[in-house]
């Protein structure tokens, strides 16, 4: 069940996006599941339709869902979306490191330091 906390410092679209990713990752939502319409979900959650539309756009860009025109939006099949997005980020980072000509051991040290220094996500 999706819940938007209006008192949270996290924007509502991000709360929705994160909860849908978690639902896919845990198997609560499976490939082929149809998502509620933008207007319907916005009404259920008490948010603006643009909030839901933005979350859906970001999920589609991350290949978590796909929109099939008038048929609606559906959970995509394939990899766990969190792992797939992390893999794409790692591939982009590795390509940037190669372009810069940096040593892979230095690159790994930068990543380890960044992960230690960044705040944990809730």
Automatic annotation (TrEMBL):
HTH gntR-type domain location: 10-78
This protein's UniProt keywords: DNA-binding, Transcription, Transcription regulation
Protein name (record): GntR family transcriptional regulator
Database matches in SMART domains: HTH_GNTR
Native source organism of the sequence: Microbacterium candidum
Matching Pfam families: GntR (PF00392)
Superkingdom assignment: Bacteria
Residues spanning the membrane: none
Record keyword Ion transport present: no
PANTHER family associated with the record: HTH-TYPE TRANSCRIPTIONAL REPRESSOR YTRA (PTHR38445)
Listed InterPro entries: Tscrpt_reg_HTH_GntR (IPR000524), WH-like_DNA-bd_sf (IPR036388), WH_DNA-bd_sf (IPR036390)
């Amino acid at each position: 069940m999706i819940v938007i906390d209006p008192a949270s410092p996290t924007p509502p679209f991000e709360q929705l996006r994160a909860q849908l990713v978690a639902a896919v990752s845990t198997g609560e939502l499976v490939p082929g599941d149809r998502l509620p319409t933008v207007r319907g979900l916005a009404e259920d959650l008490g948010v603006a339709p643009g909030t839901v539309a933005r979350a859906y756009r970001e999920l589609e860009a991350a290949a978590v869902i796909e929109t099939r025109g008038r048929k609606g939006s559906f959970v995509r099949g394939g990899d766990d979306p969190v792992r797939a997005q992390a893999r794409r980020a790692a591939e982009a980072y590795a390509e940037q490191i190669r372009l810069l000509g940096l040593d892979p051991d230095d690159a790994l040290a930068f990543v380890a330091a960044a992960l230690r220094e960044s705040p944990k996500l809730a």
